[in-house]
Amino acid sequence: MIKVGVFGAQGRMGSEVVKAVEGAADTELVAGVDTAEEREAVRGADVVVDFTHPDAVMDNLRWLIENRVHAVVGTTGFDDARLARVRELLAANPGANVLIAPNFGIAAVLMMSFAAKAAPYFESAEIIELHHPNKADAPSGTASRTAELVAAARERAGSAPMPDATTAEVPGARGAEVAGVRVHALRITGMIAHQEVVFGTHGETLRIRHDSMNRESFMPGVLLGVRRVADLPDRLTLGLEPLLGLD
Ligand SMILES: NC(=O)c1ccc[n+]([C@@H]2O[C@H](COP(=O)([O-])OP(=O)(O)OC[C@H]3O[C@@H](n4cnc5c(N)ncnc54)[C@H](O)[C@@H]3O)[C@@H](O)[C@H]2O)c1
Ligand SMILES: O=C(O)C1=N[C@H](C(=O)O)CCC1
Fold first, then answer.
1. ipTM of this predicted complex?
2. Which helix (H) or strand (E) holds 80?
3. Is the beta carbon of 102 within 6 A of some atom in ligand 2?
4. What confidence tier does 74 reach under pLDDT thresholds 50, 70, 90?
């Protein structure tokens, strides 16, 4: 039995994780912790899953790493500075591995992988992400990672800069730029998590779309992370790709 704790247990994702951990045959819930509750409640857990808030996750990670508890992190908002801090904490404290994935949906991971594969074949690539309006961060972690993967694939292929004649712009009309790729974030009541990567070249376009219809959709990926995090070859793993044989 893998002993699991959940940070953000009262939240939209955390409450699904609690159900998934309780429902799986090989995992056992030690405790769910939410705001203002004591992290000590998860002591004894082999793995803690964090779906909290970008403002909370770094201190949670520090606590887990210092206490040698493996971490499976779905909370978004990671940038290079945050990742450098996590590496620093891991270097100073033996014992715990960390898996941070911006999206635990298996189909979402495939969508990112397919987008990276397609990227060198098109002049233009832009990303539209659509989420529920309670989301704190924009653009989404998934969109940022997709932009980075697309940019890296284009760079490896020696792609020319994307054409764009815009000289007059209402601020924001062309979206945000992440690794040189335009990202457009929509916040729409009734939606959960959706993304379309739009590619174009002369006479042809390709749109790669992913839709999460509910939050259960993330649970197979979360449980995969819980089962594998302790044995991952690197102390810090980014994305579910290596666990799916995709990188
Ligand atoms: N990686 C993925 O597949 C994936 C999927 C969905 C959401 N997310 C991300 O997960 C995060 C949470 O999303 P959500 O929709 O569940 O949000 P939510 O607001 O519904 O839930 C977050 C919960 O965390 C709690 N919380 C805040 N600070 C805390 C702390 N210090 N300790 C313990 N609990 C704390 C809040 O009270 C809340 O109950 C966001 O960053 C979101 O982008 C990632
Ligand atoms: O609901 C959210 O918030 C989600 N966040 C992740 C992101 O930022 O990419 C994944 C999808 C759901």
1. 0.99
2. helix 80-92
3. yes
4. very high
